[in-house]
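User: Could you go from structure to sequence for me? I need the amino acid at each position, not a summary. Structure tokens:
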């Protein structure tokens, strides 16, 4: 019974993680597409929403767009080192010691899932959210440059730009906490191991 409950909990956690990391950021982009369509094309795609099968399309497209957002930011950050520049400005000095993760998982699975995985998911979620707002900002800016000016779209673009920067800063802040949590848990595990070994003699 306990194993069944554990499997259900893991399945639920996996689904919740996918929703956080990919579906929500992708869905934000779809909402922006709807807003652009509403103001520039007089709500031309509204008839699709009335279709019963369109809900499944929204879920699939949102999920795919979430992956695109993560891949886009990975390329931008890896190529231009934006995260390092932000860390330099904010004076964040840390290093994620990922080589310690297998040992932490082996020695204390409960704490690992409660703290380490939570921090990892939170970091990635803020990363994809930042990417999503960035895509919205670029899309709306393009429309403002080639189409008649709409203050509503300008407002969306402005909000998206500042939200993207804010979420990227939060991403780095969370990663800093993540690095600190890995280090502190590693010290606790090492100290516990020393005490255990000393009790043997």
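Assistant: Here is the amino acid at each position, in order:
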């Amino acid at each position: 019974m306990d194993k069944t409950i554990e499997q259900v909990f893991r399945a639920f956690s996996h689904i919740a993680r996918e929703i956080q990391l990919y579906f929500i950021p992708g869905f934000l982009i779809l909402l922006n597409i709807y807003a652009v369509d509403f103001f520039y094309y007089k709500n031309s795609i509204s008839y699709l929403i009335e279709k019963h099968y369109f809900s499944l399309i929204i879920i699939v497209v949102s999920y795919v767009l979430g992956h695109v957002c993560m891949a886009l930011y990975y390329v931008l950050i890896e190529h231009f080192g934006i995260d390092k520049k932000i860390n330099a400005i904010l004076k964040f000095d840390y290093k994620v010691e990922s080589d310690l993760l297998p040992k932490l998982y082996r020695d204390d699975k409960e704490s690992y899932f409660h703290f380490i995985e939570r921090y990892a998911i939170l970091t990635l979620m803020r990363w994809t959210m930042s990417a999503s707002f960035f895509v919205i900002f670029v899309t709306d800016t393009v429309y403002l440059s080639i189409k008649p000016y709409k203050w509503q779209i300008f407002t969306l673009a402005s909000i998206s730009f500042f939200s993207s920067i804010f979420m990227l800063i939060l991403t780095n802040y969370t990663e800093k906490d993540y690095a600190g949590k890995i280090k502190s848990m590693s010290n606790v595990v090492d100290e516990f191991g020393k005490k255990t070994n000393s009790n043997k003699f």
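One structural detail worth keeping in mind: Residues 194-201 have pLDDT under 50 and may be disordered.
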